[in-house]
Design brief:
By secondary structure, the protein is mainly alpha-helical. The protein has a single domain, classed as MetI-like (MetI-like fold). Helix content is 72%, strand content 1%. It has 13 helices and two strands, in the order αββαααααααααααα. The chain has a two-stranded antiparallel sheet with strand order 1-2. Strand 1 and strand 2 form a beta hairpin. The longest helix is centred in the first third of the chain and has 39 residues. The two termini are 45 Å apart.
Amino acid sequence: MAKSTAWRWRGHASAYLFLLPWLAGFFGLTLGPALASLYLSFTNYDLMEPPGWVGLANYVRILTADAKVADSVRVTFLYVVLSVPFKLGFALAIALVLNRGIRGLPLYRALFYLPSLLGASVAVAVLWRKVFAGDGLVNQFLAWFGIEGASWVSDPDYALYTLVLLSVWQFGSPMIIFLAGLRQVPGELYEAASLDGASALQRFRNITIPILTPVIFFNVVVQTIEAFKAFTPAFIVSGGTGGPINATLFYTLYLYQEAFGYLRMGYAAALAWLLVVVIAAVTALSFLTSKFWVHYED
């Protein structure tokens, strides 16, 4: 009995030894800094002096006295509301086309996925700024038809929509997931519906969409979280200012300005934790409402 217990403990020790690098990374690089930032959110800290406890003052200022917070929240929610549906709608449309079994499917799949593989990189954002500049490729194309285009990234009426378009352009990741989901739809269901006289639209509405709802739900949750966290495109396109006239002032960009522009680290930590709370609340709401429209096999 004692020997079996010793072997069991030795097996556990081996398992924890293999887990040690991950545990060190989790506690040292994730949980530890997160708890430290939570503490700093209740302090006045500028990297120069030791943190001074201020209690809920940072949170009160965020919710009641900072006008730029309201601007950044408005811009961020507008970006989320526009980019997520358009991105997922476009990804689903392309997935439906690719699911028809066209020739060269692996090549098209790789090409469509490439923008997502690049991610929200600095290079892509710089390219996007050049494309939509006053003398960019978009306006050069419009000039062929005698149309004088605006300076899209410098006009507060259009700047945010260029970032929405950038998000939609990076549709490859949800497209691949939609394509995998479409491959799981039983073909006999379409055949039976066709025999009953159902049109293509009716088959899409009554067969494809209900079976695809778990995949849609997954993509909605993931893309919504990513949209709330968007930072690099707004930073590069606006030059880090959130301009013009705060039209691209994402919440994450304002957080960055407070932390590294004005060295208000305590205030920035409070902004970050409020973002965590908002994302968690939106995600929880998505899960609560999913029971009304997400259909699983059981």
